[in-house]
Amino acid sequence: MWMHNGNIGGWKYVKRNLALGLRGKWFSSVGGNTDSEWAFAVFLDALDQMGYDPDSASLSGTGFGHSVLRKALLATIERINTLIAEIRDTERRESDEDLECRSLLNFAVTDGHSVVCTRYVSSMKDEAASLYWSSGTSWQEDKSIKGRYRMERRDKGADIVLVASEPLTFERGKCDPKGTKRTGFYSLPSIPVAEADPFPTDDWVIVPTNSTLTIHKQAVMIHPIIDKYYNPNPSYTRSTGFAVSKGLDVIEEKERGE
After folding, report:
1. Is the C or the N end of the chain the one with fewer CB within 10 Å?
2. 111 and 69 in contact (C-beta within 8 Å)?
3. Distance (Å, rounded) from C-alpha 159 to C-alpha 208?
4. In angstroms, rounded to a whole number, what is the distance separating the alpha carbons of residues 210 and 37?
5. pTM score, whole prediction
6. Which residues pair with 172 in a beta bridge?
């Protein structure tokens, strides 16, 4: 299963080269014209080039593994960025000075065993569309308020992990640059979140801009996407204007705990 929230920059110019770069099998698999469908084809092509057949029935019982899914997602983002860079200096670019080349690439993919999501923007100055996660032992209705739900935590396990563009409840975690709370801002190598803080007090935790969120069994892991748009400083301020202009939700500074 594949999901995409956002856009591919310069899409009307990128689409042709993106399609031509796919193997015939994945080119033919696309039935529509949206950037999300073609991005999925790039992802499938990336898996194929890594030596993993997305159609292999032998993988149905085990999946590809979360590391493989994450690498294929990163390859997809890298390929999209490369294609966009190639159109910047073309005659088409010169004839359309207002061409928007920034991409918002919040992807989610699962093989039925692991889930990998990205929160990403191809910009050093702009904030990505928001992404949150919550984990616990059960998703229960709040007995004090009918129709309101929250995550219940009876032990250290993460029997349920929810990922959403916007929080489904009002409790939101705050980002602590020191990493003393369950924030997702961890230095390399990545730290399983359950080990960092097994009993968080807030339902929803922010996924940092330009990061992957990996869910495998009872582990939730955050990995930074380290490329030219990555900034290791968790206090670095980005503009929310671009994502808002696309009609997407963003994380306000007050939610960051700054």
Report:
1. N
2. yes
3. 23
4. 21
5. 0.81
6. 204
3-state DSSP of the chain: CEEEEEECCCHHHHHHHHHHCCCHHHHHCCCCCCHHHHHHHHHHHHHHHCCCCCCCHHHCCCCCCHHHHHHHHHHHHHHHHHHHHHHCCCHHHHHCCCCCCCCEEEEEEECCCEEEEEECECCCCECCCCCEEEEECEEEECCCCCCCEEEECCCCCCCEEEEECCCCCCCECCCCCCCCCCCCCCCCCCCCHHHHCCCCCCCEEECCCCEEEEEECCEEEEEECCCCCCCCCCCCCCECHHHHHCCCCCCCHHHHCC
